[in-house]
Design brief:
Blueprint lengths: L1 H6 L7 H4 L20 H37 L23 H11 L27 H13 L3 H42 L12 H16 L3 H11 L6 H17 L6 H9 L2 H14 L4 H10 L2 E2 L3 H9 L12 H23 L4 H15 L1 E2 L5 H4 L7 H8 L4 H24 L5
Antiparallel strand pairs: 1-2
Length: about 425
């Protein structure tokens, strides 16, 4: 009644949950499903539950995507670049360049993991690029979609990425809504759509696939579906090497559950045993084919200059960019400024996340993923893309933004979506190296 007096409109039953000053406790199990519902009723409930999530994400991504394509066409720089390196005949060809070119080659021709030295090379890059550096799940799905639909590798890759991005959005909403309500979940989905690096969500890149697997694996842990979590983590390990952080998060969550006597040891133990097999299996296969069990890391180091240096390169960038110096390795000024902003924002958001006392799986996954990115020598501007799967960072912001009324929330996210065509798309693919 008091809500009607203050706002001049009928009270929204969801407002009390979405606007509560303190988050509700994280429940241990998911809500029960009414098994007595008829199929049409379940479908209507599914549309009512998931429709706003898909619409929010889709509209914001379309706005950002359109802005990205407009900037590409207006500048026209891509027309003078090689199709492998940010160029092509059409604006959308850019989305299949860089790593996307490698994924298309794998989908077409498979792997040939044989290290090939660069003749006479003595510096950092001593090996030619090799498809074995790219994990197999994404190109395998591309090949499957291509054979089923008749699409070429580019169309198949875009299809996989776009579909997985919506699956990831549903997972982000599911996790966030457990503590902050539906409006917070929608805000988190909107933030992921406009986040720096989000240009890779709708491109021939594996970020959307990996994020979808990671978020649903974490959700499975939160809802105590241990075998599902183990299987999803196994698949994530076939998508990106950073899945080792997800394995560690699952192990910590399982240990805590057992120690608190919430679970019998068998299911968490089986999940932890399954989880790393994807990553270990692929690295072992590459090592076997190369005749060197450390072949994958040597390939990353010798062909791309990516090596774990305990953060020396990252520290060098963080001490150079603020004073306007860009004389470090792999410098990309505009992209690196965005990367520095992201790197400095993550610890702040992590502290705010921890204050919410979320399940341990979210904290461990976030912290270890961040440390892994920061500890690796690579194109620094890429951190905005590599940090994109750290969806738990969106939760504190989403809880704050749920207090906004829908017109204000739409204005904030809509403006960010329009701008994301530049900072999350054009800068990533054309002014940097994604």
């Amino acid at each position: 009644m008091s809500s009607t007096v203050r706002t001049g409109r009928p009270a929204d039953p969801s407002d009390s949950a979405d606007r509560a000053p303190d988050p509700t406790p994280w429940p241990d199990v998911s809500p029960a499903v009414d098994a007595g519902q008829s199929p049409p009723e379940r479908q209507r409930r599914a549309v009512a539950r998931h429709g706003p999530v898909l619409a929010t994400y889709g509209v914001l991504k379309l706005v950002g995507f359109a802005a990205f394509m407009y900037l590409l066409d207006s500048a026209g720089d891509f027309r003078g670049k090689h199709p492998r390196f940010g160029g092509g005949d059409h604006t959308w060809d850019v989305l299949g360049s860089w790593d996307g070119w490698w994924y298309q080659q794998i989908a077409l021709h498979g792997y040939d993991p044989a290290p090939e030295p660069v003749p006479g090379a003595t510096g950092m890059i001593t090996l030619k690029g090799n498809s074995a550096a790219f994990f197999p799940l994404y190109p395998t799905l591309m090949r499957l979609v291509s054979e089923v639909t008749g699409l070429g590798p580019y169309g198949a890759g875009m299809t996989v990425s776009v579909v997985c991005s919506f699956v990831a959005a549903l997972g982000i909403h599911a996790v966030t809504a457990r503590v902050g309500g539906r409006r917070a979940g929608l805000a988190a989905v909107g933030l992921w759509a406009v986040w720096p690096g989000s240009g890779a969500e709708w491109a021939v890149y594996s970020e959307s696939l990996y994020t979808a697997l990671a978020v649903w694996a974490c959700y499975a842990v939160i809802t105590r579906r241990w075998l599902v979590a183990g299987l999803l983590t196994f698949l994530a390990g076939l998508a990106r090497p950073t899945a080792v952080t997800l394995v560690a998060a699952l192990a910590v969550a399982g240990l805590i559950a057992v120690c608190r006597r919430r679970e019998d040891i068998r299911r968490p133990l089986l999940a932890v045993a399954i989880a790393p097999l994807g990553t270990l299996g692929y690295l072992g296969w590459v090592g076997h084919r190369m005749g060197d069990w450390g072949g994958y890391s040597k390939l990353q180091d010798g062909a791309w200059g990516h090596t774990f240096d305990y953060g020396r390169h990252s520290i060098g960038v963080l001490t150079s960019v603020p004073v306007g110096h860009f004389d470090y390795l792999f410098a990309m000024p505009f992209e690196d400024v965005i990367g520095v902003g992201m790197v400095l924002l993550v610890p702040v958001l992590t502290v705010l996340l921890v204050r919410l006392r979320p399940p341990a799986v979210l904290v461990v996954y976030t912290v270890l993923s961040y440390l892994m990115v920061m500890g690796t020598q690579q194109y620094f501007g890429n951190v905005s893309r590599h940090l994109l799967p750290l969806f738990p960072l969106l939760i504190p912001l989403a809880l704050a933004m749920r207090r906004l009324r829908l017109p204000s929330l739409a204005t904030v996210l809509g403006t960010a979506a329009l701008a994301s065509g530049s900072y999350a798309g054009y800068v990533l693919f054309e002014l940097g190296v994604p």
